[in-house]
Write a structure and sequence with these properties.
ATP-binding; 6-stranded mixed sheet; 14 helices; alpha+beta; 13% strand; RNA polymerase II CTD heptapeptide repeat kinase activity; ATP binding; 31% helix; nucleotide-binding; Phosphorylase Kinase, domain 1
């Protein structure tokens, strides 16, 4: 499970006080033997609410007192109740010592993911250990928003959060998920595995179905990529890692950060600094995934943002004059290509199944308004022409394979050479 975490909000706080460095548990191990601590509830917090959507945007500021802080009657840390009280009210916290870690299966900037055994039920689960600093409002805010988003979603193709596990360390909290054996990036990187057209349609149909549920519930994922698409042994694909996700309302757009989505799957408007955007960023990523599965490799593997935009313009064509006038993007003058490029998707992917090209053309439109909707993508001829999407249960059974496994194998091979 790729693990990255997300963005922004609004605060009113009292006068600044000098912050005391929290040195208690910086280097503590995963043994979890120190009592969890948390800051007091924040002063006057403003949230944005509309159509029953709650934003955790830019809103948390903390002042530590240097000693342990209270938990509520259920045992939840007070700071967690303050930012995600509605989401956790039906849960009882579990302790980390009721799980046994078996293996590390993912790693990100703010989190590690472990395969673990629930010592009470005997089930195998995935534990996402979120590292945060009570002095760092950003990391707490992103973790809280991920919980809020996941509690709102309920779909066979979206990962399900099963509870929260509190550690005795002040800087750790675990999110418990159902365990999935594979991720799409890990499977695609195995040389012996070559997906058939029917299998690609099966995976893409599940991805788009999960995205449709997210968008219908006012959620942008903002980090669709192969390592965040988990697959179990029954062939079921689930969208995971909502650390960068955000609530959105197309009727009342709020400014959001453009620093989202892994570079190879990042839409051009984000690279150009857009702060008002919508479902188009997820659709672009889905288009990259579809073309990658058909090509057998990433289609635009840029190393820098400048190189990524160059690859996009060479494949998808330069934006029109109308585009620049319509969107007025912050980085337009910096990245506007000096020479025009002609769109060449059909020529570049001429060996792809013919029914896939109209869908790729739509999803990889430079103008986000021309990418349509997930529902339109699901109704495209790609899914209604033979070979039809196979049933997930008919997919081959593979040995467990995740992107992290591939990276470890590659590192070992380089050391051997």
């Amino acid at each position: 499970m790729g693990c990255v975490l997300g963005k922004i909000g609004v605060v009113k706080s009292g006068p600044r006080r000098r912050r005391r460095k929290n040195s208690n548990n910086r280097n503590a191990s995963d043994g979890d033997e120190v009592k969890i601590t948390q800051p007091p509830p924040p002063a006057a917090v403003e949230t944005e609410r509309g159509n029953d959507r709650e934003s955790v945007s830019e809103y948390y500021s903390f002042r530590t007192l240097g000693n342990s802080f209270a938990t509520n009657q259920q045992g939840w840390p007070s700071w967690l109740v303050a930012v995600a009280g509605d989401a956790i009210k039906d849960w009882t916290p579990r302790r980390a010592n009721t799980f046994k870690k078996l293996d590390k299966i993912g790693q990100g900037t703010y989190s590690n993911v472990y395969k673990a055994k629930d010592l009470i039920t005997g089930r195998i689960v995935a534990l996402k250990k979120v590292r945060f600093d009570t002095l760092e409002p950003e990391s707490v805010k992103f973790m809280a928003r991920e919980i809020l988003v996941l509690k709102k979603l309920n779909h066979p193709n979206v990962i399900k959060i099963e509870g929260l596990v509190t550690s005795r360390m002040s800087t750790s909290l675990y999110l418990a998920f159902e365990y999935m054996e594979h991720d799409l990036a890990g499977l695609a990187a195995v040389q012996k595995i070559k997906f058939t057209e029917a299998q690609i349609k099966c995976y893409m149909k599940q991805l788009l179905s999960g995205l449709e549920h997210c968008h219908n519930n006012g959620v942008l994922h903002r980090d669709i990529k192969g390592s965040n698409l988990l697959i179990d042994n029954e062939g079921i694909l689930k969208i995971a890692d909502f650390g960068l996700a955000a609530f959105y309302d197309p009727e009342h757009k709020q400014p959001m950060t453009s620093r989202v989505v892994t570079l190879w799957y990042r839409a051009p408007e984000l690279l150009l600094g857009a702060t008002h955007y919508g479902i188009g960023v997820d659709l672009w990523s889905a288009g990259c995934i579809l073309a990658e599965l058909l090509a057998g490799k990433p289609i635009m593997p840029g190393r820098t943002e400048v190189e990524q935009l160059h690859k996009i313009f060479k494949l998808c064509g330069s934006p029109s004059d109308e585009y620049w006038k319509k969107f007025k993007l912050p980085n337009a003058t910096l990245f506007k290509p000096q020479q025009p490029y002609k769109r060449c998707i059909a020529d570049t992917f001429k060996d792809f199944p013919p029914s896939s090209l109209p869908l790729i053309e739509m999803l990889l439109a430079i103008d986000p308004d021309e990418r349509g909707t997930v529902t339109a993508a699901l109704n495209s001829e790609f899914f209604t022409t033979e070979p039809y999407p196979c049933e997930p249960s008919s997919l081959p059974k593979y040995p467990p394979s995740k992107e992290m496994d591939v990276k470890l194998r590659d590192e070992a091979a380089r050391r051997y050479v």
